[in-house]
Every structure is written in C-alpha cells, then in structure tokens.
C-alpha cells in the first residue's frame, strides 16, 4: 500500500513541477530531467512513470481538459439540460477565464506539442467530454427555440472559434491596440461578441 501511495505521490510531484516549469518557459525547453531536478528526484525517476516527455504532457493535458470541462459546466449549475442564452454566454466567459487563469494547461490542450492526441485514450476522452458540454448546450437551446434547427457540430465549431480567438487576442493584448474594440472590461466586450454571434443563430421569424 505504501509503495502504491509513494508511486502516486512521485507521479503527482512530476506533473505539478512540469506544470510549473511550463509557466516559466516553453514546451520545447521542458524535459523529464528538468522535471526531476525541480521535483528533487533522481534523473531517472520520471521515466518510471512516463515513457516519454509527450506522455507526460498528454497526462497534463488530460488533467487540463477535465478542469476545463468543470469550468464550462459551472455556467449552468443545475445542469446542461437547464442551459439558457444567459448561461450560454456565461459559459463563454468561463472559457476565456480558464484560458487566462491556466495558460500552461491551455497551451497543451490546444497547441501542437502532442503530435497525435488520439494516441492517448484518456486525453481523447477528456477532450471529447469538454466539447460535448458545448455541443449539448447548443442542442438544448435548439430544442427550446433559442437557436435555429441545424446540425449542431458546425455551430459548436463556430462558437468554439469565437471563444478561442477572443482568448488568444486578449492574452496577446491585441484588443488594446485599436480603440473601441474591447475596453478594460473584457467581459462586456465578449458578451457583445456573443450577442452578434447569437443574433445570427436565432430562428427565422
């Protein structure tokens, strides 16, 4: 029992230190040896838990997607089946807030450092679960007549693109370069973008 607990503890230390190192540098500069040094472990210790650097990154990205899913679900505390337009916009806010608060996770989740995410079943499952929150929310809004009947996947991809693009531009400080785009209150600016998006998705009168 103690050996299992020790193994789990060491694995967790590696993951925590890898995340800290990503916040300080780049994915490219991260190595299992650097993680070992930061965690106070022998140089070979991480290799007993992760077969490669990419495998460790995939586990971190999996953890990120699980937290991301919880963040999205928090917009409708009663459940996705109770989604409203207001809570749908709030879910977009949660998306951007996650990108701001968890840049290391976000970089792994939506970057290119993991060559083939489908090679890691847990990562693929976690990513699909997060996306399904958006997809199911759209289907709920379609059933109650707030969004026009249409295949939900392309709509979800469009909403995702808006949220992702907004997050990237906000993080890069690009909105501040042009007057009138998004002020200091970025949430109001984001809601304005969502209003424009949703106006285009409303059912025909």
Which secondary-structure class do the elements indicate? Answer: mainly alpha
Tally of strands: 0
Radius of gyration: 20 Å
Distance between the termini: 65 Å
Query: What's the tally of helices?
Result: 8
The biggest beta sheet reads: none
Low-confidence stretches: 1-6
Q: Give the CA-based shape.
A: elongated
Residue fraction in strands: under 5%
Give the overall pLDDT as a whole number: 91
SSE arrangement, N to C: HHHHHHHH
Quaternary structure annotation: single chain
Approximately how much helix is present in the residues? 55-70%
Write up this protein.
Helix content is 65%, strand content 0%. It is mainly alpha-helical and 205 residues long. The longest helix has 23 residues, at 2-24. It is elongated and about 65 Å long. The N and C termini lie far apart (65 Å). Mean pLDDT is 91; it is low at 1-6.
Q: Briefly, what is this?
A:
The protein is mainly α and 205 residues long. Helices cover 65% and strands 0% of the residues. It is built from 8 helices and no strands.
What keyword list fits this structure?
elongated; mainly alpha; 205 residues
Secondary structure: elements and pairs:
Elements: H1 2-24, H2 32-39, H3 53-73, H4 85-101, H5 103-110, H6 121-143, H7 152-171, H8 186-199
Helix pairs in contact: 1-2, 3-4, 3-5, 3-6, 4-7, 4-8, 6-7, 7-8
């Amino acid at each position: 029992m103690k050996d299992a607990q020790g193994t789990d503890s060491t694995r967790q230390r590696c993951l925590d230190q890898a995340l800290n190192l990503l916040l300080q540098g780049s994915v490219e500069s991260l190595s299992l040896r650097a993680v070992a040094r930061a965690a106070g472990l022998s140089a070979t210790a991480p290799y007993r838990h992760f077969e490669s650097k990419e495998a460790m990154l995939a586990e971190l990205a999996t953890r990120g997607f699980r937290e991301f899913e919880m963040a999205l679900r928090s917009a409708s505390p009663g459940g996705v089946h109770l989604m409203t337009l207001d809570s749908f916009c709030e879910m977009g806010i949660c998306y951007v807030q996650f990108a701001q608060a968890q840049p290391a996770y976000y970089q792994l989740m939506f970057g290119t450092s993991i060559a083939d995410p489908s090679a890691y079943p847990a990562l693929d499952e976690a990513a699909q679960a997060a996306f399904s929150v958006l997809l199911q929310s759209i289907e709920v809004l379609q059933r109650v007549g707030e969004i026009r009947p249409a295949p939900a996947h392309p709509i979800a991809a469009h909403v995702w693109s808006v949220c992702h693009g907004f997050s990237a531009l906000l993080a890069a400080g690009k909105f501040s370069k042009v007057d009138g785009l998004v002020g200091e209150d970025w949430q109001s600016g984001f809601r304005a973008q969502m209003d424009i998006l949703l106006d285009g998705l409303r059912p025909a009168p």
